[in-house]
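pipeline stage [seq->struct] | target=Metal dependent phosphohydrolase | organism=Desulfuromonas acetoxidans | residues=806
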Amino acid sequence: MTPKHKQIQKKRFALTPSATKRLLLVVLAALLTIIIIPKGGFVPDYYKPGDIASRDIKTPRDFLVPEPELTEKKKQDAAQAVIPIYDYDPRPSKAVAQKFSDVLSQLNAELHRHDDVTVEEASPASPDKTTSEAAAEAIVEAGVKPLPAVNPSAILDLQLTEAQTKSLRLLARDDVLVPKFSRDIRHGLNRKIVGNLELFQNNWHGSILIRDLANDKETIVEDKQSVLGLNEVLRDLRQQLFGDQNVTAEAVEVMAVLQKMVRPNLTFNQSETEVRKRAAAESVLPVLLQVKRGEMIVREGERVTAEQVRKLQALQSSVDGFKMARNAAGLMLGIMLLFYVLHRFAKMNIRKYHPQQRDLLFLVSVFVGLFVIAKVGIFISMALQSAFPYIDSACYYYLLPFAAGAMLVRIVLNSEVAYVFSTLLALLMGMLFGNNLYISLYVLVGSVTAAHWVRHSQARSNLYRAGWYLALVNMAMVLAIYALSDNPFNEQVLYRLGFAFVGAFGCAMVVNGTIPLVESLFKYTTDFKLMELANMNTPILRELMIQAPGTYHHSIVVGNLVENAAEAIGANPLLARVAAYYHDIGKIKKPLYFAENMHPPENRHDKLAPSMSALILISHVKDGVELAKEHKLGHDLIEIIRQHHGTALIKFFYDKAQQREKDGQVNEQDYRYPGPKPQTREAALIMLADAVEAAGRTLMDPTPARIQGMVQKIINKIFIDGQLDECELTLKDLHEIAKSFNRMLSGIFHQRIEYPEPAYKEREKDKEIKRINNDDLHRESAAEPRHPDNNVQNGSQDDLKRLGMS
């Protein structure tokens, strides 16, 4: 495969910037989800009762532990609480009473029929016949068919003895006793009767549930006196029927018949009782012991108990795979939406929020790094609580360097990006710490405070100044959180205040140690790096001073000009000054081809064609970029070196080429710098100051008015040529820049005492003044418009002619 084909294949598989950003978003959301979802703690070890714990195990979340012993006891209590069930069937007792009433009534009726035949009509034929026999014979003789005799055994459905039948017949003779006897039997048997009263009372536990089989109604009975035994009911009946006195043989026989017929109507339903006890036991919910987050389950070196084993098993089983997967999916989607929406809003509405692909990679790295530190901090805080149990583990959270991320982002990028970063960080940190709103507030306020105080830090001591202000804000937030949470002010408040104070300076230390790593990995040029490069003894500047002393001096003057102008318009003065020092380092390779390094009267361009001279001037930009990369000056400085001439026209050699060509057909693009145009205000400042300083050296009599006119003309030409179209300079900024240049150049080219000069000197002076408005022969000065239009040009110059005027 040829190199060309390899290059084509590499491009085919390369991700577009948009796809790369989406991939970064997915990766960041996935990593944060992995970190956030487990709320601290790994799956605990497996132990058996009696084992020795190898480490401290603290609960990372709230969960419930089943207590089988307490559950079983509760089930037993529920079963015992079930009221014994008795079946009550009054129908057999009513049937007995009814049968007795029927037999007595029928026997009484039979006796009355016999009594209707008088003794006179039934005189006995012989003295040996009884009255009843005589009555029977009289009925026969009278021609009356006798009724069948009443059979008490058939009515009562019971085998009666002769004595018992006779006793019933005798009892039925008394017309008054028969209805009373029937009522007493009905009343006596209309009670709740058990077979063994003593056994019933021994099993009595305060109440019973009586289920009436006749109508399926259930009634709770709490009076055990309302239940009688079978023997007691018979005894009461005997007393009611016959009284305590005159218990005749007939009464005994009648009671014997009743004893055979009466049965208990209240019986214990053991089967139904057991069913209900089982149902009550099964309805009991398991007894669960709540274990709170942060509670110590077992300590290292302890002998593990059965209860601790149950807690560990419950902790393991509390990790529901499906639920965790669902939560992880929801959290990842939420994080992606949060980042995307805030990023799009900031990009569309915040002027300075324009992170590039490298910036997004840096932000993702800082996010992940901070969350890893916070996660590790959670585990360490749990371990420290084991060592120092009088300090709550939550107190150690305030030692974590939450604000370090915002400080880094502010130092490397800008305040707008740092604010968006702080907002996202605060929201997600609150989720990491169990959806804690107070932690979110603490992180947000601290991050914004720290980002503000590291603005334009030009010394590492500024980090600790920012740490001091952050410490004060952190401590105030601790007091505010305690007041909001209604927690008592105890010694834990003091621990939190102390840790918040120390944690603020910890942020400064983390940032101080991380900045060099960030500069190296992401090729950023921070203010600290710029301070190192501002040292005039760096190898590249020393070489510039030796090889091209004129360019070196020119760069220093340009640095002074842009630093003051940057302060006037709110740009980065340190970046502008340091970039000015290095903007012309490409001239080291061919220093004698640039006017400030020439030794008159030698001029090497006299022997070269205009196109070659232009090519040499243009090459110093390319050479400067290569030297900057070689000396690792950083991305920002490299871009300023590449942009500081924009696409300006090298007008002197362009005009010279047109004069040589008879037909005047000269390609203008051959005499323009390759660009790009300045993209930042600092790069535009260096373009303006470079041209102004070069032109200022041509002034023979640098009065304030002439300096102002020269600055006015150069800024107008660069503006009209469109070199400032792609940066953020406004007309107001150009006015402030011109004022700053006038003030600085007036100080540099101050008025000197004039001495009388010969006439030829005066003539030379007049010629030099006429040359002010022409571009220097060998300088890469500001260009004329590509397509000059006299009307537009004149109008634009009129519009801008007051630049620098107070």
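stage status: PASS
auto-comment: Residues 695 and 776 are 7 Å apart (CA to CA). Strands lie at 57-58, 63-66, 85-88, 192-194, 208-212, 217-221, 227-229, 266-268, 288-291, 296-298.
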